[in-house]
Structures are given as C-alpha cells and as structure tokens.
Design goal:
Length: 290
C-alpha cells in the first residue's frame, strides 16, 4: 500500500471543495490524486505526470474513483497546454509533490537506485532526453563537477568528477556508485554517491527549470480563492518555492497560508521514513487587480 507524504496537511491546505476542479501535477502512484477524488462529488481532479508508466500505475491505483479523475501525461512546462487541451481554464487548487516516486526509486530498470543494478537511465519520461549514462559519459570534467556541486550540493564534486572521467565508460548504476565510493570516503549514514545520483537525476530531468515553469504557470491557472500546495524534499527546491510564493504575496497576487514551512509530524516520520525531509508550503490566490 502506497503512503502519500504529508497527505493530511496537503488536504487541509488544499481545502477541497466537492464541486471543484483540481490538478495533481505529480500523480506518481496516485496517492494524493485518490485522496482528492474521494472528497469530490461533481468536481474532478486532473492527474498529471511526465512519466507515462507512473501514470498507468496511478490509473490502476485510483480505479475506484475513475469517473472523477482525468489522466494526462505532461511535464510542468506543459501544464498550461495540457489543461487547455482538456478544456480547463481555471483550477480550484493544485498540488505538487516533487521529486521521484517510490516506484521510480526502487524499480532497477529506471536507473535511480544506487543499490540495485540497472541501466543508468534516470529519465522520468523514458520517451525523450539524454540518460544519466549519456550525461556521465559525455560531459566535460568541469561541467560535471559544476553539476554535482550546484545540483547535488556535493562538496567533493571535483574529486568525484575526476574519478568518473577516469572510469569511463560508466556502465550502469552500481558501476557509478562504486566509482564514487572509491573516490570519496563514506562520512555519516548516507551512501557516498547519494548526492551524485541526486545531481544527475536533477540534471537529466531539468528539475530546476521544470519547477520554475510550474511556479510561473500555476498562479495563472488557479482561480481567486484557489490554493497551491507544494511539497519538496531538498533545500534547493524548498528555496525555489519559498522565493516564488513570497514574491506572489509581495505583489499582492496571493496570500501565504504557511508563514513558516510545515514539516511532517513525528508519527508520520516513524511510519514512513521517506517523509523525513519533506517540507510543505501553501498559498491562496487573490483576485487579479488593475
Ligand atoms: C513524489 S512522486 C509523487 C507521488 C504522489 N504524490 C503519490 O502520492 O503517489 C513525484 C512524481 O512527480 C513526477 N514529476 C517529477 N517532475 C515532474 C515534471 N517536471 N513534470 C511532471 N511530473 C513530474 C514524477 O514522475 C513522479 O511520479
């Protein structure tokens, strides 16, 4: 059974109206989508994800409420056109639960796992773009070091980049994990390649640019009184959301519902350790003036 992260808090801030139109921009395994759908009568929830395989899993998991859900494969930067193609002009709320899903992380074939052998893929949408192997095997040492430093907050970026270049061609997930492990000593609980994998994943999926696109599009698409809820898992992303939300509030376009970031309760973290690093922020759109 899939456990959606910060579900109660997301629902509280989304304040679902039974007749409303909602978007789940990150349907994943359908956890948040299902919970929204359960609260609807005449309303609907648009379940979006850039990963077609995840969307099929979400469809299966949410069958009981299928008549209230519309599934559509789209990335954040396609949100506007995706909703327009479904004939939807305004939403009563949007939720985005960022990052990768448990399915993506644990399915070796997808290449996100540093503890299972698989192709070094990491594309959320496997139909397009460069894989992590392509990136690890063709990027210059300097670019690779920058990527690890800026997208993975990896302080040992130069040493790791040099080791990757020397070990080329990187064959698969475990090969990369091993190369990094040999290059830098283990400090603390995390596998030494954790940030390398994170950085490559973020680069392959253009996650910074995609989140920016979402943060620009969503406020235009959510109606007055409608809400936006964002759940992030790393400080870089939380900062992106915080800055964008504060700017909307400063411009008088929205009201912050969370003055401070909201974290999962102890009980949730005990039951679902994956929720440990989650941070939630929410806002309510105001009417457009002028
Ligand atoms: C943490 S999971 C969501 C889990 C979901 N809330 C649930 O309860 O099952 C994040 C999902 O967002 C999707 N995603 C990440 N970046 C995306 C983007 N730029 N556009 C669309 N979907 C994206 C991923 O494919 C993944 O399925």
């Amino acid at each position: 059974m899939h456990t959606p992260v910060m579900l109660n808090e997301a629902l509280e801030y989304l304040a679902v109206r039974p007749d409303g139109i909602y978007a789940d921009a990150t349907a994943g395994l359908g956890g948040h989508t299902a919970a929204i759908a359960q609260r609807l009568t005449t309303g609907q929830v648009i379940a979006l994800d850039c990963d077609g395989e995840s969307l099929e899993l979400a469809r299966g998991a949410t069958q009981a409420w299928a008549e209230r859900i519309r599934y559509h494969q789209a990335k954040f930067s396609e949100l506007r056109t995706a909703l327009a193609s479904l004939g939807i002009e305004k939403l009563d709320g949007l939720v985005a639960d960022l990052g990768v899903s448990r399915y993506q992380l644990t399915e070796p074939e997808r290449g996100f796992s540093l503890t299972a052998t698989g192709p070094l893929d990491m594309r959320m949408d496997r139909s397009q773009g460069m894989t992590a192997a392509g990136m690890a095997n063709t990027t210059s040492e300097r670019e690779l070091a920058d990527l690890l430093y800026y997208l993975g907050e990896e302080r040992r970026a130069r040493r790791i980049a040099r080791a990757i270049i020397r070990a080329r061609p990187i064959r698969d997930t475990l090969h990369l994990a091993r190369v990094v492990e040999l290059a830098v000593p283990r400090t603390g609980r995390l596998h030494p390649a954790t940030q390398t994998f994170m950085a490559l994943r973020r680069a392959v999926n253009r996650e910074t640019e995609e989140l920016d696109a979402l943060l620009v599009a969503a406020p235009d698409l959510v109606a007055e009184g409608g809400r936006i809820v964002a759940i992030t898992f790393m400080s870089l992303e939380d900062r992106q959301v915080k800055v964008a939300f504060r700017e909307l509030a400063r411009q008088g376009r929205a009201r912050l519902l969370t003055k401070h970031v909201v974290r999962p309760g102890e009980q949730e973290v005990a039951i679902n350790p994956a929720s440990r690093s989650a941070k939630l922020r929410a806002l309510e759109m105001k009417g457009q003036r002028g």
